Amino acid sequence: MKQNVLYSNNVDATLNSIIEGGNYNAIMVHVDENTRQLALPLLPCLSNAHIIEIAPGDNNKNIDTLSRVWSEMAQCGATRHSLMVNLGGGMVTDLGGFAAATFKRGIDFVNVPTTLLGAIDASVGGKTGINFNGLKNEIGAFAPAKAVIVSTIFFHTLSEQEFKSGYAEMLKHAMLHSHESFEQLLNFDFKAIDYDLLLQMMQESLLIKQHIVEQDPNEQGIRKALNLGHTVGHAFESKALADGKPVPHGFAVAWGLVTEAVLSHILKQFPSKDLYSLVHFVKDNYGAFHITCDHYDQIIDLMRHDKKSRDREINLTLLEDCGSPIINNTINEDDIKTALDIYRDLFKC
Amino acid sequence: MKQNVLYSNNVDATLNSIIEGGNYNAIMVHVDENTRQLALPLLPCLSNAHIIEIAPGDNNKNIDTLSRVWSEMAQCGATRHSLMVNLGGGMVTDLGGFAAATFKRGIDFVNVPTTLLGAIDASVGGKTGINFNGLKNEIGAFAPAKAVIVSTIFFHTLSEQEFKSGYAEMLKHAMLHSHESFEQLLNFDFKAIDYDLLLQMMQESLLIKQHIVEQDPNEQGIRKALNLGHTVGHAFESKALADGKPVPHGFAVAWGLVTEAVLSHILKQFPSKDLYSLVHFVKDNYGAFHITCDHYDQIIDLMRHDKKSRDREINLTLLEDCGSPIINNTINEDDIKTALDIYRDLFKC
Question: Where are the alpha helices (DSSP H) in chain B?
Fold first, then answer.
């Protein structure tokens, strides 16, 4: 499942060498409306590619869009010897990766993430898929891209919200890795982004992830650590979606990281100093996700539906400290409610 | 991609030991209307399983049925620690295998083929998938079943047509393997089926296939030999489907084997004696697929759309002799038309 992750701001040349080396009979580029307009012009090597364009947004990451992409691939005359380039955020790479992995039982694809979230979340691990029946990534496959080209050249047009959404995933990796990484992330200057430093930090972040994924490609053990912040985060995200007020994935992860850090503090003595640093950072940069105690049952039910759940148990990764994750903690409802109480208190919501 | 293929007429005990050994939190059995009625009662170990029933027939092997199966899996509360048992013909195992391989990015599944075609065609190789846009198995994945249980206990209720449809795939394996295997197959007594001999012949047939698949799991080389009879066969099958007069898959394969044996005779000196034995056997048991020269262009176009085609070239496996396949023969239209002329002449159609 190891993917070839290439770190380069010379994306066009890097992609071109993959295309030329592959002897493909057709090149497709899968984009959304935004990346067609903003990212595709930066890649002249794709000027003759078949363009498959979809509507942006996680709400379009569904079976209907997938069917349309499959149809367009067929219309392009794609065969097993064709290449799909997924140029976009995580939605484009997840859906496009799954489309490619299942078209004629699998063709080559290259992911070119255009968002920080896409780069960090979807570059390593080979996860592809779509939402289904209101559940995120319910349908999908583990399928490695032929290559992933990680760069910062597309980030200049990202909104602050999009940027911070991706940054939350880097924060997660830092918390899994070390106190030093965590501190570095908390001190990054969002007002004057140093893109060279950022590419280097992204590489470090992805190496942390890659190291974990390689130890456990099928998510039976330590890879579950990467779920930090996501069980609660996905529940918040699903609730927001159900309420018709979707929130950016990384924002949900940031709030999830706080809630799971609270649980880590209660159950595993995660240091209060680090918890408060995290809360401070998240409040400043992500604001708050507003819930009341009336929402607890809904949130807990959504947590029970997590893909990684067994027997509807709620299974979390907790931290004893930054760099010391403990996987496979079965959490009872009372502790979750306590953590949600504390979360609301910390965020004054 | 190696699958665990178990040959046993004690299917219930074999399946039960898999279920008990797996510590699953939910067992689903995926059936069609026919296998629910005729096959499921033979397996008491599934009496408490969630039943997911679909309508039979290759025309239902589509995205709508797949979506419904995914939904029902979710409704059953299936998690990554659940098991799907696909009990049926190739349509049930192909679609159910793909549903399981993509539900939450993949859960365990066991295939229990109930037809000879399903046992021979879908037991080895890990191919799963659905039809899409009028093309067979256009969408799918290579995904190994946890186990495949091959038996003859479900064959007593097969129609003669269903039985012969599966037998054509065994004939293909025999032709790829040896003159001796080919002769054994031609001499089998369809009027008084010896099921013990049949299970043994099935095992030999699947070992031939398994040996080829293991040499080339990703279908880059020798595995293409298994396509013998299928490029023409699929074109016949697609044409029949387009005409609203579907033919059984194995019948199309039998006619495809004849046409490709004619091409092998023309281009690779496949012995005329064996060609005539094959024609005699196929005419006697499968009748003829009626085409006229007005259909040649349509058939050739369908052959160009074959999943394994590159650049719309028609690429066939041919035989120098039984047991001596030659892969990667690019065939020109004139030779195909000549072969179709000879096919029509041999079959008087």
Answer: 11-22, 33-38, 63-75, 90-102, 116-122, 160-177, 179-186, 195-215, 230-242, 249-268, 272-286, 296-304, 333-347
List pLDDT tens digits, range A145-174: 999 999 999 999 999 999 999 999 999 999
Domain residue spans in chain B? 5-157, 161-193+219-347
Could you tell me if A1 lies within 8 Å of chain B, comparing CB atoms? no
How many CB atoms sit inside 10 A of residue B134's CB? Answer: 11
Amino acid letter at B2? Answer: K
The string of pLDDT tens digits covering residues B30-48 is 999 999 999 999 999 999 9
ipTM for the predicted complex: 0.83
Rounded CA gap, B116 and B202, in Å? 9
Average pLDDT in the A10-38 region? 97
Is the domain spanning B5-157 CATH 3.40.50.1970? The answer is yes
For residue B66, the chain A residue with the least C-alpha distance is: A63
What is the rounded CA–CA span in Å between residue A316 and residue A331? 7
Give the mutation candidate from A70, A81, A104, A234 for the B interface (greatest B CB count, under 10 A).
Answer: A104
Smallest Cα–Cα separation from B7: which of B207, B215, B307?
B207
* Nearest chain B Cα distance for residue A62, angstroms: 11
- CATH class of segment(s) B161-193+219-347: mainly alpha
On whether any CB of chain B is under 8 Å from the CB of A77, the answer is: yes
pTM of the model: 0.85
The pairing of strands A108-113 and A147-150 is parallel
Q: Tell me if the domain spanning A161-347 has CATH number 1.20.120.160.
A: no
A210 reaches B (C-beta below 8 A): no
Residue B132 forms contact with A (CB below 8 Å): yes
**Cβ-based contacts of A139 with chain B (< 8 Å):** 70, 102-104
Token pair for B61:
């092997």
The answer to whether residue B71 neighbours chain A at the CB level (below 8 Å) is: yes
